[in-house]
Design brief:
The chain is α+β, with helices and mostly antiparallel strands. Helices cover 36% and strands 17% of the residues. It has 25 helices and 30 strands. Strand 8 and strand 9 form a beta hairpin. Helix 9 crosses helix 10. The radius of gyration is 37 Å and the shape is elongated.
Length: 843
C-alpha cells in the first residue's frame, strides 16, 4: 500500500511539475510574443484589397484593374445556409468555442491517423482570420503560437458574426476570387443570395485547397469535397435528408465568369488608371476605388466604332496587302489548325482564319477560324481586294477567289453569321447533329492607318468620348493625347479669329494670287499653292476660310504679324512651343495633339471661354464615400480675378491641413487641380469676334469643304477640314455651341495617305458617323447673338456696302468695323455712276 502511495505521489509530482513547466513555458512565450501582436482593432480598419473599377458617367463598367477580384459583403447579405456550409467545412463549433477548438484539433488528428488526410481541418475560423489578416504563411511553431494567441484576443474583442464576416470577405477561393461574393460571381455569375445548396457547398469546399478542389481545374475532386460537406451539413442538422439527396445529385454547374467591360474604351480606361496611380500610388489598385468618368457610354461606343469603320474604309480603298501568314493545311485536324494559328491574335472584331479550300466555280473559299471553327467566305466579300502596290496605286479588281487567296493563307475575317445547330426536334432520325446555318465570314484586314476621335463638352470641358487608335491591344499609344501632328487648315480658324479681334471683318479683301518667298527659315524659295492648284483673285475673308484658300491665309498672317499672332495663340492657351515663327504657320505647319485642337475648338464653340478638359467626374471609396468630385464650372466675363482668388483660397485651406491619413489623399486630389472647388472659365476671346467666326465656319459645312456634314440635317454645325502637304495628316474639327469634336487620320510614322485623300474624305466621314449618335435627339444649339453686331448688305467683290440695285449679300460686322455708309448721291442716283470698282487697297 505504501509502495502504491509513494508511486502515486511521484506520478502526481511529475504531473504537477510538467503542468507547471508547460504553463511557465506558455506564459514565457505569451510574454515574449504579446508585445509584437497587432491590436485587434486593426481588423476593423483593414482595407480589403479590392480592384480599381472605372465606370462611365451613366454607371457602365469600362475596366477593372487589380490582381484580386473582391466585392466586400456584410454578413446580413449572406444566407444562413451558406454560413452553415462554411462552418460544416471549416469549423462546425464556431459559435461554441473561444477561438481555439481542442475537440476539433483532436478530430483532425484522428482523421489524419485513420484516413491519411484531414477533411475538416484543425484551425478554427477565428485562427484563419488571424492568419489571413496578420500573419505570414510560414509553417513554424512561433507562427502557430502567434495564431492561437491572436485568435484568443480576437474572440475577446469582436463578436462571432463580425469574425465570420471578416473571414468570408478575406478568404481566397481560386481564380483570383477573394471573398464569397467575388467567388459567387466568378464560378456561377450570381450574387450570393441566388446560389443553390449544391453551389454553396462547392464554394465552402474551396478554402482548404483552392486549386485541388477547384471545380474548373479538378471537377472530380471538387465533387467529392462538395458531397462530403453536404453530408456534414446533414449530420449537423443544417439540412434535411431530402435536401441532401437533391444536392448530391445536382450536376457540376461551375463555369468561369468574369465581369466583362460594358463599354469598349481602353484608351480612356488607361488614362483614368494612370491618373489614379499618380494620385494614390499603388493603393489605387487595392483600395477599392470606383472612378466615374465624364464619358457617356453611347457616345464612347459611337466614337470607337466610327473610328474603326472609317479606318477600315480607308484601308480598303488602298487595296489588299495579302495574307499575314501561310502554312500547309493538308491532313490537319480542326484542333491542329487552331493550334497552328495561336500566334495570330484576334484584333477587335477581326478574327484570324486559314484558307482550307478555294472554289472558283462556287465563288467561295472554305476557311477555318481559330475561334469559331470551319466556315465559308463568299467571293462577293472579296471584290474590294485589289492588290496593294502603293498608297496611290492598286492592282486590277479580282475576278475570282484565287485572285485573292490561296489554300494555306492566313487572313483576317469578320464574322457575318455564327454557326447554328438544328434544334433537337429537327435532328435527323439517325441522331446526328448537323448545321442549320454554317459560319459565314467576310475578308478583312487590320488597317495600318491610325486615327483619333475626341469629343468635349464645350460648356464645361468634360471629355464625352475619346478613341486613341484602332486597337489598344495592338498599340497602347494614345494618339488623341500623345500624337503631335501638323493641323493643316484646321489651324486657320485661330488665325482668322486673331484677324477679327484686330479689326478685320469677314468682308475684308485679300488677293488670292501667286506669291514667292525667299526666307532662310523656309530653306529657300517657297511657292505656296491652293489645294486645287488654282488662284482666284480678290477674296473676302469669309470665302477665304470656308473655301480654305491658302494664299489668303498667308497674306493675312503677313498683315497681322507673326509675333502678334503667336501672342494671340498664347492668349487662347493654344500651345506654341512647336509653332514656327514664319509664314508657314498660317497653313498649320506647327504641331498640336488632337486634344490640343479639340480644346481650342471648344473655346470657339462656347463663345470664347477658357476650357480645361477633364476626364474624372468623381472618385468613390468602396462604401460610397466621395473623396473627389470635379469642380464646379464657372463662366466668367468680368471680375474674374476675384473668382480666381476665391478658388485659390479654398485650395490653400486644403493645402494647410495637417498631414493625416484622412487628408493625404485629398491633398493629392487638390494638387492635381489648379482650383479644387471651382473651375473658373475666363473669357479668352471677344464674343462678337467668336460669333462672326461661327457664322463663317458654318459656311464651311453649308457650302465649303465640310459639306458632307449636311447629311446630319442640322442647322447648328460649324467646322473646318484640314490636310497637310502630301496628305500626311488629315483632320476635321467641328462643333455646335455645346459640343466640339475633332478627328485625325494618318500614319504613326508620317507618310502620305495617297492621292485623293483629304480631311473631307478620311476624317469627316468618321466625324459625321460619330455625331449621328452624339447629337441624336439634341436640340439645335447655336451661340446667342451678342449686342454690337450689325448685319449689312455688301458687294462681295469689294467688301463695301452694296449700292441700290447692285447684287449683294448680307454680312456680319462689329458695329465699329462696319463699312462706311454710301455717299448721299449714290443712294439718290441708284448706283448709276458706273460699274462697281475694286477697292483701292487689296492686301
Amino acid at each position: 500500500m505504501s509502495h502504491l502511495l509513494r508511486t502515486s505521489r511521484v506520478f502526481a509530482w511529475f504531473l504537477l511539475t510538467g503542468l507547471s513547466v508547460t504553463i511557465l513555458i506558455a506564459s514565457a512565450f505569451y510574454l515574449y510574443l504579446r508585445p509584437s501582436l497587432p491590436p485587434v482593432q486593426q481588423l476593423l480598419d483593414v482595407k480589403l484589397q479590392t480592384p480599381l473599377r472605372v465606370y462611365s458617367q451613366d454607371n457602365r463598367l469600362i475596366a477593372e484593374f487589380g490582381e484580386k477580384r473582391r466585392a466586400p459583403i456584410t454578413i446580413e447579405q449572406i444566407p444562413t445556409i451558406q454560413l452553415q456550409a462554411f462552418m460544416a467545412a471549416e469549423d462546425s463549433r464556431f459559435y461554441d468555442h473561444f477561438g481555439v477548438d481542442f475537440r476539433g484539433l483532436t478530430r483532425a488528428a484522428v482523421e489524419l491517423v485513420s484516413t491519411g488526410s484531414i477533411q475538416s481541418g484543425g484551425s478554427t475560423i477565428t485562427m484563419q482570420v488571424a492568419k489571413n489578416y496578420f500573419l505570414s504563411r510560414d509553417r513554424t511553431f512561433i507562427r502557430k503560437f502567434n495564431e492561437i494567441l491572436l485568435a484568443l484576443q480576437i474572440e475577446r474583442e469582436l463578436d462571432k458574426d463580425k469574425i465570420l464576416e471578416l473571414y468570408l470577405n478575406k478568404i481566397y477561393l481560386g481564380n483570383r476570387a477573394y471573398g464569397i461574393a467575388a467567388a459567387a460571381q466568378v464560378y456561377y455569375d450570381k450574387p450570393v443570395d441566388e446560389l443553390t445548396l449544391a453551389q454553396m457547398a462547392m464554394l465552402a469546399g474551396l478554402p482548404k485547397a483552392p486549386s485541388a478542389f477547384n471545380p474548373l481545374a479538378n471537377p472530380e475532386r471538387a465533387m467529392i469535397r462538395r458531397n462530403w460537406i453536404l453530408g456534414r451539413m446533414r449530420d449537423l442538422g443544417y439540412i434535411t435528408e431530402d435536401a441532401w439527396q437533391l444536392a448530391v445529385e445536382a450536376p457540376l454547374t461551375a463555369t468561369y465568369n468574369t465581369r466583362e467591360a460594358e463599354v469598349d474604351a481602353d484608351y480612356v480606361a488607361e488614362m483614368a488608371r494612370a491618373e489614379m496611380v499618380r494620385r494614390f500610388g499603388e493603393a489605387a489598385y487595392t483600395d477599392g476605388y470606383s472612378v466615374i468618368l465624364t464619358v457617356d457610354s453611347e457616345k464612347q461606343k459611337a466614337a470607337t466604332e466610327s473610328l474603326r469603320t472609317g479606318l477600315e474604309n480607308y484601308d480598303r480603298r488602298h487595296g489588299f496587302r495579302g495574307a499575314v501568314g501561310q502554312f500547309d493545311v493538308s491532313g490537319m485536324s480542326a484542333i491542329a489548325l487552331s493550334d497552328q494559328m495561336r500566334n495570330y491574335p484576334r484584333i477587335e472584331s477581326l478574327v484570324p482564319a486559314v484558307v482550307t479550300a478555294v472554289d472558283d466555280d462556287g465563288a467561295l473559299a472554305r476557311v477555318h477560324t481559330r475561334h469559331f471553327g470551319a466556315g465559308k467566305m463568299n467571293f462577293d466579300t472579296m471584290t474590294w481586294a485589289r492588290r496593294y502596290r502603293t498608297e496611290s496605286l492598286t492592282g486590277p479588281a479580282p475576278s475570282k477567289v484565287s485572285d485573292v487567296v490561296s489554300v494555306g493563307d492566313v487572313v483576317y475575317v469578320k464574322v457575318l453569321q455564327l454557326p447554328q445547330v438544328q434544334d433537337q426536334s429537327e435532328t435527323p432520325d439517325n441522331g446526328e447533329d448537323f448545321l442549320k446555318q454554317e459560319l459565314q465570314v467576310s475578308l478583312a484586314q487590320a488597317p495600318r492607318v491610325e486615327g483619333a476621335v475626341i469629343s468635349i463638352n464645350a460648356q464645361n470641358g468634360a471629355i464625352e468620348s475619346l478613341a486613341g487608335g484602332y486597337s489598344f491591344s495592338q498599340s497602347k499609344y494614345n494618339r488623341a493625347t500623345q500624337a503631335d501632328r501638323q493641323p493643316g487648315s484646321t489651324f486657320k480658324p485661330f488665325l482668322y479669329l486673331a484677324a477679327l479681334e484686330s479689326g478685320r471683318t469677314p468682308a475684308t479683301i485679300y488677293n488670292d494670287a501667286p506669291i514667292v518667298f525667299e526666307d532662310s527659315e523656309l530653306e529657300g524659295s517657297w511657292r505656296p499653292q491652293n489645294s486645287s492648284g488654282q488662284f482666284y483673285g480678290p477674296t473676302t475673308l469669309r470665302e477665304g476660310l470656308y473655301r480654305s484658300r491658302n494664299l489668303v491665309s498667308i497674306r493675312l498672317l503677313r498683315d497681322l504679324g507673326i509675333r502678334h499672332t503667336l501672342n494671340y495663340l498664347d492668349q487662347l492657351k493654344i500651345p506654341t512651343a512647336r509653332m514656327p515663327a514664319n509664314l508657314s504657320l498660317s497653313l498649320g505647319s506647327g504641331q498640336l495633339t488632337p486634344m490640343d485642337l479639340a480644346r481650342g475648338f471648344a473655346v470657339i464653340a462656347n463663345g470664347g471661354y477658357d476650357v480645361e478638359p477633364y476626364l474624372i467626374l468623381r472618385i468613390q471609396e468602396p462604401d460610397g464615400t466621395v473623396v473627389y468630385e470635379a469642380p464646379e464650372t464657372v463662366l466668367c466675363d468680368t471680375n474674374c480675378q476675384e473668382e480666381l482668388d476665391k478658388a485659390d483660397s479654398e485650395g490653400a485651406v486644403m493645402a494647410s491641413q495637417p498631414d493625416t491619413p484622412e487628408t493625404e489623399g485629398m491633398k493629392l486630389l487638390a494638387s492635381a487641380e489648379t482650383h479644387p472647388e471651382r473651375r473658373v472659365m475666363q473669357r479668352l476671346a471677344d464674343e462678337r469676334s467668336v460669333f462672326i467666326l461661327h457664322s463663317i465656319m458654318q459656311d464651311v459645312v453649308r457650302r465649303g469643304t465640310g459639306r458632307r456634314a449636311l447629311a446630319l440635317n442640322r442647322n447648328d454645325l460649324a467646322g473646318k477640314t484640314g490636310t497637310t502637304n502630301d496628305q500626311i495628316d488629315t483632320w476635321f474639327a467641328g462643333f455646335n455651341h455645346n459640343i466640339a469634336t475633332t478627328v485625325w487620320v494618318g500614319f504613326d510614322q508620317p507618310a502620305p495617305l495617297g492621292r485623293g485623300e483629304f480631311g473631307a474624305s478620311t476624317a469627316l466621314p468618321i466625324w459625321v458617323d460619330y455625331m449621328k449618335t452624339a447629337m441624336k435627339g439634341a436640340p439645335s444649339a447655336t451661340m446667342p447673338r451678342p449686342n454690337g453686331i450689325a448685319n449689312i448688305r455688301i458687294n462681295p467683290r469689294t467688301g463695301e456696302r452694296a449700292r441700290p440695285g447692285e447684287d449683294g449679300t448680307f454680312e456680319l460686322f462689329k458695329e465699329e468695323n462696319a463699312p462706311a455708309p454710301l455717299p448721299q448721291d449714290a443712294n439718290e442716283n441708284g448706283g448709276n455712276g458706273g460699274d462697281s470698282q475694286l477697292p483701292g487697297n487689296i492686301f
